[in-house]
Amino acid sequence: MRIVQSIPIVLFFVMTLSATRISSQSLIANPECVTYDAARDRFLVSCFNSGRIAQIDSNGVESILWTSSRLAYGSHIDGNLFYVSVENNPGSIAVIDFETDTFIKKITMPSSAQLDGITTDTSGYLYVADM
Question: Model's pTM, two decimal places?
Answer without folding.
Answer: 0.76
